[in-house]
């Protein structure tokens, strides 16, 4: 089995198939999307550091 075939089979099992799974997915998705706003990754991308600061070795 190749790597792509293996990952394709894993990816096909990740979607909601049953009506209860679809219900909870549709219920929870707006909450997750609201929590992932524009400011959620600021702590990563807005980090500032001094290029001239000496680093202890």
UniProtKB/TrEMBL annotation:
It comes from the Bacteria. This is Transposase. It comes from Paenibacillus cisolokensis. The lineage of its organism: Bacteria, Bacillati, Bacillota, Bacilli, Bacillales.
